[in-house]
Structure formats: C-alpha cells, structure tokens
Amino acid sequence: MLWAELRQRHATIVVLLLCAVVVVLHQAARAGWFIDDAAICFAYARNLVAGEGVVPWPGGERIEGFSDPTWVLLLAVFQAVGLDGFSVAKPLGMAFGIAALVPSWRLAKAALPDHAGDGALVAPIVLALNPQFAIWCASGLENGLFCFLLAVLLDRVVQESGPRGGLPGAALAGLLLVWTRPEGLAYTAMAGTWLAVFGWQQGRGLAPALRFAAIVLLPSVVLELGRLAYFAWPLPNPFYAKIASRGVVPLDWTSRGWTQVQEWSTRLWHLYYVPFYVLGLTGRPTRPSARIGLGLTGVVLLMLLWPWPSNLQGLTGLPSLPGLPATAPEAFLVFRLLAIVALWLGLPLLGLKTPGARATVLCGHAVAIGLLFSIWANGDWMGAYRFLSLIAVPLAVLVAVGLTRALDALPRTANRWSDSTFLVASVLVGAWMVPGLHQTFDHLRFNTNETTTSVKQRVDHTRNALRTAFWTEPVTTIDVDQGAHLWWAPDYRSIDMGMLVDIPMARHWYQQRSFIEEYVYEEHQPTFAFVSGWWALHSGLRTYPAFERGDYIALPPYTDIRTGRPFGDVFVHRSVVVAPQGEVPLREVADGVALGPVQMGPWVPGQPGYLEVPLQLTEPPPSVTLTLHQGDREITRWKRPLGYGWLAPEDVRADEVFRNRWALDVPSELQAGTSYTLQLEIADQAVGLKPLVVPVTKVAPSIQATRQHLRDHAQAMQCHSAEVAFVWIERQRPTDWAWHASRPGRAEDRGTLAACWAQLAASHWPSDRAAAIEALSKAHRWDHHHPTLRRIGGPIGEALWRDGKAARAEEDWEHAYQHFRSVLQFQPWRAWARRYAEEARDHRLGLVNDVRIGRGGDDDRRRAESER
Predict the structure, then answer these.
(1) Would the CA dihedral through 20, 26, 29, 32 be positive or negative?
(2) Does residue 687 sit in helix, strand or coil?
(3) How far apart are CA 452 and CA 727, in angstroms?
(4) Structure pTM?
(5) Dihedral sign from CA coordinates of 262, 264, 269, 273
C-alpha cells in the first residue's frame, strides 16, 4: 500500500514537471511578442522608481492609465534593481503559469474525493495546453499573475473551509486579486461568500468569513481612499475609457462581448465539451443532479438553434430551423440570454450535495464571473480572447472533474480504470490539443494586434521626422497605441485616442465635437496625428477644420514589420515644415525669392554641419541645390527637397516660409581660416548666401561659449534668448543624438532655463497672470523638479486653486475652467484640478446633459452631422 502511494506521488510529480515543460514551450512560441499595452505598465513602473510618481510620462498628470496595480508594483520592484518590464515580464508570466499548475491539480483532487486514480492530473495538463493561458501569460500583461492568484484563492477557500480550517491564505490572495484587476473584486466576493457558507456548514459560524472580510476590506478601503486622493477618481481610467464612455450592452446577442464568447466556445471546442463541464459541476452521470443539469443544458442548447448561429449556418447551409422564421423576436433573444446566464449561475448550485462540491461550486462560479465580465466589458480588442484567459484555471479543473466522473462510470478493474477507459481519456485530452495548438499557431502566424515592436516603428518614424526637421519645440501626438510611446518617447505628450492614459478623452466621446475641437485642436495642436482605418472613421478626427484646411500633412509611409506593406496615415503639423511669414524676418534677394536669416553652426571637416536657410518662394520648385566654392572652384554640392519632401510645392501657402533646417556632410578637405562661398540655386536662379570661413575644427570651445551666453541671458531674465542658446548648443553637433541626450551640463542648462522662467513668472504675478502662467509652464517643461519652480509656483498654484474653487462654488464655469486648467500647466500633480476642469468644461460646452454613448449607429450619425 505504501509502495503504491509512493508510486502515485512520484507519478504526480513527473506529470506536473512535464506540464511545467509544456507551459514553458507553449509560452516560448510567443517569446518575441509583447502586446503594446504591456509597455504602459512598464513605463509606469519606470516612472514610479524614478521618483516621478504614478504618471504616464515624466512631469505628467496623475492618471491611473492601467488596471493592474499589483502587477505595476511588482514590475517596479524589479525596475528598482535595474530590470525593466521587457526583461522580467515574460519570465514572471512563465513562473506564475507554472505555479498555477499545482493549485489547479489540488482543486481537481479536492473535487474528486471519491476517485482513487489520477484523474485530477487532467487539470494541469489541460491548463498547460490552454492557448489563452499560454498566449496571455507571455504577453507582458498581468494575466499570469491573475490566474495564479485566482487559483490560490479558490484552493485556499477549499482548504480553509474544510474541517481543519487553516491560515488566512485565501484572504491574502483575494486582497492581491482585487488590486490586480478590477473584476478581482467579484471573484474575491464570490469566494468570501462561499467561505462563509462552508464555514457555517462546518459549525464554525461566521468567524472565517469575518476574518476574510477584514483582511480584504480594511486594506482595500485604505487603498481606495488613497486612490481617490491621489488620482481624484474612484476607479482606474481604463474603466471610464472602456465601459463608461461606451456603454454596457449585456443583452445584445450581436455585441462584441457575446460574439467573442460564441467564437471562443466553438473555435476552441468548449461547446462540445459542455457535457463534461456539466458533470464537473453536478456529479456523476448516475446522480439526479447530473441528469437535471444535462437536461437543462440541453434545453438551452436547443434554444441556440433558432436562429442558426452564423457558424452553424455556414456548415449546414440552412437559413433557420424548418417552419420557423429566420429572425427571432427580440423578447426571445433576451429570454435566451437570461437563460444562459441563469444556467451558468445555477449549475454549480445543483451540485452542492455532491462529493467535492466546495471545489466545483467555486470553480463554476469563477467561470460564470469570467464569462459575464467579458460580456459586460463588451469583449476585448486584442485577439485570442484575452479576458477569457483569466478563467483558464477553473475551466481546466471543471473539464478534468467532468471527464473523470464520466469515465468513472465505465467498467473498472480493481478500482482502477481499464485500458479502454485510459484510451478514451487519452483521446479526449488529446483532442483538446487540436483547437488549442491551432489557435497558438494562428496567433503566431497571423496575429495583427499592435505590439511594442510594431508601434516602436511609428515612434521611430515620428522621431526621425523631428530630427529631419530639427524640431525642438514640445511634441504632442494623437495616437491609439500608448505603450511604445510611453516607453520610447517619454518626452511626447500624448492625446490617447484609446483613452487609457488621457482623462479628458476618457470622460468624453467622439460625438462631442465641441470637446474634440477645443481639447485636441485648440489646446494642444498636436505635432503628430496617427489617424487611420477604423479609428479615422470612429473618431472623425480628420473631419475637423484643422485637417480640412490642410494643417496636417502626411508623412511618407514606412514598411510595417508585421505585414511587409507600406504603413501610412501618420500626419505632421505643417508648422514643423513651414513658418508663418511674421515669424521670420525676410529680405527679397531675387525675383520671387525672399530670404530669412541664414544660420550656420561651426563646420568641422568630415562631420555633419548645420545650416538653416529660411525661404519664401512665389513658385517653389521641388528642391534646391547648395554649392560650396573656393574662388572659382566648386568643391561640393548638396541637393535638398523643399519641405523635406513632405509638402508638395503646390500646397505651400503664399504667406508661408520654408524653414529649411539641414545637416550637410562637410567635405574633409576644408581648411580652417580659409574663405569659401556658399551659393543657393533655385530653379535657374543662383542666390549667393554669404562668404563662409570655417571657424574652428573642434566644436568644444564654441559650445562652452554658447553655454556662457545661455547663463548670461538667464541671469538677465532674457529667457527666450537663453532658450535659443540651448538649442544652438545642440545644433553644433546636429546629428549626434546620443550626445544631445547625455551631453555634460545638459541637465544643469535645463535647470538654469527653468529657474529663469520661474523668476520671470514671479515678476509678472499678479499684474499679468497670463504671462506668469505661460512662464511657469515653460519652467515646468525645462525642469519640473527645479526648486525655484516649486518655490515660486507653489503660492501661485495655490492661489489659482482657491480662485478655481471659488468660481466653481458660484457656478462661474468659464473662470473655474480657466483657473483649474492654468494650474495644471505647471502643477499637473493636482489631480482634483483636472477633475474639476473637466466638470467646468462640460458646463461651458453644454455637455452636462449629453447622455449619448459612443456605440452602434452614433458613428454614422456623427459622420452625417459632420457632412452637413
């Protein structure tokens, strides 16, 4: 007997180890893949460790743009020792995936107390083969952690509700689960409720449940109060972006949420394994509860046949059941949905009197919560049914228990399965692999979800555009994929079309055109706009005057690494290419040619040299040519497209000036102290620019001199001139981008500029409030940690905050909005100012009673409205 027990224990360990290997291999199929949203968490963790706070980008507003605080905190722990999310997220997902195998086996074993064999091992096998479990543990998101915590929660409730009780591990797991994803509260509440019921049945009264509630609720209340104080909103911003601003449609059979559940159940064969799920919940086939459960399930499945689901219709070719109309009444469809939900919630209750009911009822209701959440959240934009990956553990337990109970009804040999029964079990478990591995293969080959790598291409594309145009002003971008932007472009200020890291966008929707016009195009005037495909239609962002009058021009497409095809619809504001006439002083140098101040950095032979030639042309050609002469000898020539090749000559307005900022390859033969002539050729005209003397062969002395100019201008509170000096320092090594970011003294220079603008703000306050606020905003841009900004901006921010609250109390919404928005320009950490600013904005724009939700039909209405 002891030998048999040891052999069984060794077999269990071997199977669990083999399952761990399968988990590793299954996730390794997606080794090079990160979903873009994962980098949102990575960026938040990095900013937190860097002392910036819980913000999407350094110096940004406090926005809870993630829904997994526990995961972000865990990533921050590793970030603190130098390991970023890209280094640890996949190993952590893999580790949590492996760790979930043991509680899944324990749950199945607890659900099969009357089974003497190894049927419980089916649970970790099925879990390891689950494609959602593998794909989303490997995605860089919190799914692996959530699945592990849910498995521990369910397992510990089973253990702690037994006769022996146990330490409060369930409560600790529940607490972590609540703060790993918002719907973790539903799972934890369900588990706590059943812990109370089971504890009462064991004669221990409500003590276990009260202990559970105290451990979960008391810290959660404190954390929720902290969230409200820090972020000013009771729920994470993704809730407002994905649920509140889009509406909930749980009783619409054609909604994305229900459609994804339908596809998931058929594509991955869950529908065909329904009998095993029912037996897992209600007991062996011989029990009355199982027969009732199978009967009720059969009735609900028959209801699904009218009208035929689209996938079955394609297989049968039949439009509907004979004798029934092709379209079912709305009342029938709603009743059917309610019947399905009732079945999900009721089947676990049917098995309460069966052996192992504590485990099966917990797993059954966990599955029901997962399905209902996916429907309530209206599915997910990512492929591979991300939300349904969260119930992989209880699903694996139920299919293992159901399959075991079905096979236990077959003939046995000495309380063991016969060879034929083992064969049937192997076939059924093996069949589970077919759709799962097929989906893993499809995800590997054909998945087109945005990844951190593919979005980084777009970040690099816009970064290269900035470098090509030598744009040094603050950058704002409209985009929908924020992960790569937050990670690789923390200096960008993002307007999030997906709304996750953007509070104003998450509290409004695209049909509110007055809000979009004000917030996007007036307050921010984005430098870049990625408005493509479905998002272009859904948002209508290209139907606003800024686009219609040509303020945005398309950048050349780049080749998408996912498809190998050109990828376009990335737009840049034309101010990057051309300047309005009044911004640049001009002198006419030839017929139809006006020239602005020519600026040139020190040209070092053999290195790139900076040249700026502002031009206004009556008839601009596609390109111009620059030639360098020594006497009558031409040394070299450079041909450069006007407008960097982004703006067609015929689209240039009469009052615009080409900025023409270029980095030219300086010939190695140039000699210091020798005079050269630079000439500009425009079509058939030659314009002599200036005699050129190569000033130095090393730029270091020039940089030091320019830094001294910066300090002198800052000390004289000539802050704009000091800014020009800062830019000019970097123009002396125009394409050395790594040096720009890390040059010695750069942080000191930025602090000098911040102090200059802050002191200038103090001189303007309170006589010229607008000038003071603008100066503080510039100080914040240069160094938002500078003590001078804090010293001067503190009292001014407090005054604006008080004035805003007073205007709000009087319902003077215009002034309330201006005060709150002003303080956010240099004290973005005032989250309540953002909340009150959006409240005031809605009153100003008449949006308070606008109850439209951006769902079916509204996009067409919005488009029709824009065309009128």
Answers:
(1) negative
(2) strand
(3) 31
(4) 0.92
(5) negative
